[in-house]
Design goal:
Mean pLDDT: 92
Strand content: 5-15%
Number of strands: 11
Number of helices: 5
Radius of gyration: 18 Å
Low-confidence stretches: 1-15
Largest sheet: 4 strands, antiparallel
Length: 319
């Protein structure tokens, strides 16, 4: 993992877009954000692609606005800060951005899990897992309140656009699954556990672990027919707003998956079965006890959403 350039302030917005490092008030922790240029790409996969699934078709053109994306998946080092909430007292003296005006005390926090959600696989530098989409969304809201900069989960389209990084092949490095070992942790090489973030080669835009390690939450609702409505047209920044808890889109594949699930176009819907072994009644809205393969990374759009739009992205009804 590499830290690229220190954050230069909001003068970047609307002008040049550079990578930056976001500091976390009250700690020495940082989060490197990679500049993703706006552009157009073809979303989905052709029927001729090896291991193509029907929900990846039809291919369609999507226009994406510029944004920043976290260089690596959110680690337990950062996620634990959100869970413990001891840093909230540093908000007023620590906030440097002006995109978000939000009292951190108003942000819901994830409850402490009844078991170790890392399942002994590691926490220092390892990706956080097992959280629901709601918990990931609330981490984004908390991070926004703490820094003054607006953060959220990526849309499904943004995620695939960033993963492809200008490529049209099955993976961001080509079509050969035998090359996956250089870029990803998956069933063949992970040793039945997730691995520290940022250890493999990055994609062409400098993002690590977009293939494998842990699968990643996006904002969108999942449906097998999502792409049908976009056939033959160019869609600007699509976002399928969820109307129910399940399923939501998870992308990238994980340490438990075979190569076909790590392809740039591969899609997966979340399931209530991911809480199957949760003994709580009602089951936790913060944790997926049976999903040690799911984590997330954050994005920050160059164009800051309105206050109403911000709260839509952080909606309490998402899980």
């Amino acid at each position: 993992m590499r830290f690229v350039i220190l954050f230069m302030g909001l003068s970047l917005i609307g002008r040049s877009q550079e990578n930056y490092v976001q500091s976390i008030p009250g700690t020495d922790k940082t989060l490197t954000m990679v500049a993703i240029p706006g552009g157009q790409f073809v979303m989905g996969s052709p029927k001729t692609e090896q291991n193509h699934f029907a929900d990846e078709a039809p291919q369609h053109t999507v226009q994406i606005a510029p944004f920043w994306m976290a260089e690596v998946e959110i680690s337990w080092d950062l996620y634990t800060l959100f869970m413990e909430r001891e840093l909230d007292v540093y908000q007023k003296q620590g906030v440097t951005g002006s995109e978000v005006a939000l009292d951190v005390d108003g942000v819901s926090g994830a409850t402490t899990p009844y078991v170790d959600m890392s399942f002994g696989m590691g926490t220092d530098g390892y990706p956080a897992v097992c959280m629901t989409q709601l918990a990931a969304v609330k981490f984004c809201q908390w991070l926004s309140a703490m820094t003054g900069n607006f953060y959220r989960l990526p849309t499904e389209a943004e995620w695939e656009y960033a993963c492809r990084a200008g490529t049209t092949t099955a993976y961001s490095f080509g079509d050969k699954p035998e090359d996956l070992g250089d870029y990803a942790w998956f069933a063949d090489n992970a040793g039945d556990t997730y691995q520290k973030v940022g250890q493999k080669k990055p994609n062409p835009w400098g993002l690590y672990d977009m293939h494998g390690n842990v699968a990643e939450w996006t904002l969108d609702a999942y449906a097998t027919t999502t792409y049908q409505a976009r056939k033959g047209q160019t869609t600007d920044n699509p976002f399928v707003v969820p109307t129910q808890t399940y399923p939501r889109v998870v992308r990238g594949g994980s340490w438990m998956d075979s190569p076909r699930s790590l392809r740039s176009a591969a899609r997966r819907g979340s399931s209530k079965k991911w809480k199957q072994r949760d003994p709580q009644i009602p089951k936790s809205k913060w944790w997926h006890t049976d999903a040690p393969f799911v984590g997330f990374r954050v994005v920050r759009p160059v164009k800051t959403p309105t206050v109403d739009e911000q709260h839509t992205y952080w909606n309490e009804n998402t899980q």
